[in-house]
Design goal:
Elements lengths: L3 E6 L2 E6 H4 L6 H5 L7 E2 L5 E3 L3 H13 L11 H10 L3 H14 L2 E11 L2 E7 L2 H10 L8 E3 L4 E5 L6 H10 L3 E8 L2 E9 L20 H13 L11 H10 L3 H16 L11 E7 L2 E7 L2 H5 L1
Helix pairs in contact: 3-4, 4-5, 8-9, 9-10
Length: 303
Amino acid sequence: MEEFVKLDVGGYLYTTPRSTVTRYPESMLGKMFSGRIPPAIDADGRYLINGDGSVFCHVLNYLRRSKLDLPGDFQDWDLLATEADYYRIEDLKKAVKTAKEEMVTKEFVEVTSYHNRDGQINGYRGSTETLHQLKSFYNLGSIEVSKNSGGNYFEFFERTYPQRLEIFRTLSKLGFELNTVRSIDSKYCWTFSRKVSGRIPPVRDTDGKYVIDGDGSVFRHVLNYLRRSKLDLPRNFQDWDLLATEADYYQIEDLKKAVETAKEERVTDWGTEGIKEFVELTAHQDSAGYISGYRGSQIHCTN
């Protein structure tokens, strides 16, 4: 008869056959349940595992089926990769990496439906480009939409929005496929996706602006590099790590190298100490006369 074990993973409770958690003998779980790693067990006989309980279900499903099946709107890629590494499941680590690379070449659309006292409400979450395509299919022209917090999310009353079945058919014509269906507190949600030819689908706001989740204060340096292929930074520039991170985020390899080179040159110009001190002099006139300004250390100022 199959032996089942009870798990407490970060407060989330699971029950599964022992054969499932020992499927990979050299993994952390395989060693734990074969006695090679001493387990921690609570008073109820549950094995205590110091992991993220919310994503452990995906780890467990992979152990059950040797296949990674994730929701269409899954976002916790780095967390799942970290957990796969923690449990020392090499095949899962590779599966997460592959799935993530495939996922960024897809566009997702979410359609929701629920009732309130005003009647039937349909919701749409996705790019404004696809929303405009849906509008054009039904010749609806300008639709009054309310954009709520949490991304590009729009709600429509039933009287101003096509029936869900019509929306589903249209999404199918646009190349979308149904990924998941779920129900939460009488609110139904359908997630669709389509491939976008290896490109990342853009996100636009209602004014047509492209929305980029980056640091706006250093983006001007990124943009200037794209304009001139040359990295020109202020003499007192300090945000090296931030600019390097942004260059990596935008996947501009030449800019990453330019930032690294500029940083090394900036901090090693003045000898082996590798530290530069900056002094700024200013001059202007006002009603009191000619004013000179100094910004720098007090040591040089007193000298």
